Amino acid sequence: MAKFNFPRSPGTDRKNPFEDERGENPFAEIGPRPSGDENPYAASGAEAQHSDPPGPGHYVITLPNRSRRVLAFGATGTLLAVFGVAMAAAGVATQGNWTWGVGYGIPIQLIGLATSLPSWIFGSSDLRAMRAGAMDATGRRQTRIGFMLGVLGVLIGTVPVLGWCALLIAYALAI
User: Fold this and answer.
1) How many domains does the chain have?
2) What is the pTM of this model?
3) Are 74 and 112 within 8 A, CB to CB?
4) Do 147 and 127 form a contact (C-beta atoms < 8 A)?
5) How many other C-beta atoms lie within 10 A of the C-beta of residue 159?
6) Of all residues in the chain, what percent are helix, strand and coil, respectively (each to 5)?
7) Is the CB of residue 86 less than 8 Å from the CB of residue 80?
8) How confident is the model at residue 56 (pLDDT cuts 50, 70, 90)?
9) Which residues are CB-contacts of 5 (< 8 A; sequence separation ≥ 6)?
């Protein structure tokens, strides 16, 4: 039987890329370091004087405060929801038919919901960030008030809208 010769691996004659002709690594930090004139990649003398790299103290580490926005959205949404309920009650009282209340109250209540819901969402996330220390806590009181107004506006606006929807469904089924 003939003797089998294994093929040579393509990497056996490979040269080490980190060795020069003398077998030394030119990138190693053994021996004296070249000065700025010999090394084109060395830092200039002015840059070498800064020994402190910028650390966490050089950057803003807290989120900005959004308490005014949360309070404005909450107050606007709650006022619109209350105004929508009052308009619906006035429509029912003046016309004597509950469908007029739907026409007057629902659009205003929906606009109130559209401003109360962001106040609820922003307020809860901002209060959570303030408790964690990730947000500036100077407006915590305003944020909490805006959050509560947002929740109140959503409740005041949602209950009548659901009631009007139930009345519309009941009216449609009765016909």
Assistant:
1) 1
2) 0.61
3) no
4) yes
5) 13
6) 60, 0, 35
7) no
8) low
9) none
